[in-house]
Amino acid sequence: MKNIVIFASGNGTNAQHIIEYFQDRTDAQVVQVLSNKLNAKVLERATLLGVSAMSFNKTAFYKRDDVLNVIKAAQPDIIVLAGFLWLFPEKIIQAFPNKVINIHPALLPDFGGKGMYGMNVHKTVHAFAKAEILKTPAKKIYTGITIHKVTPEYDKGDIIFQAKVEVTESDTPESIAANIHKLEYAHFPEVIKGFLRL
Ligand code: GAR
Predict the structure, then answer these.
(1) pTM for this structure?
(2) Residue with the nearest Cα to atom 11 of ligand 1?
(3) What are the pLDDT digits (tens) for 104-115?
(4) Residue-by-residue DSSP string for 67-89
């Protein structure tokens, strides 16, 4: 049995999809969900699905080894950042080499980096697409998802998987977000399965 640990900061719909996907399998399971937000919805989602869930603060994450020790106890084969907004500490990446992956809601290397998360990304992509379509109406603009290895810098590690979706003239930041979530739900659990060689 392979063990999956998930970090998420907010709603946690991706975390929920990953938990449910592996609850239907016998070769891997989500054993721990961790959040930097005390009231994050993801903790409730994990709890309802019977998965161990905990929140932590900056001291436990960056200054002390409390979070590191919780991860070690979970014996993860993969650590998945699914909507996790804090910079991942180098000491944890080093303790689990090649085991930490992140999902980003755009086609990296575009629209990545500090501050580029969630709706900020979709608003930026929307403004960019609108300007491009205005300049060249026939031009096709795409956004998408990127799943990549985590390094001590935001959105910089090796790309494992990308999938794209067109941004059209009638799109809004909200419709882009909905399209991106659809792509995430369709691909993220499968990519994790592949990463675990299952
Ligand atoms: C997802 O779209 C994920 O790609 C994004 O946050 C959303 C979380 O949604 N991650 C980032 O922006 C990281 N830079 P969820 O909480 O419903 O899974």
Answers:
(1) 0.97
(2) 117
(3) 999 999 999 989
(4) HHHHHHHH--SEEEESS--SPPP
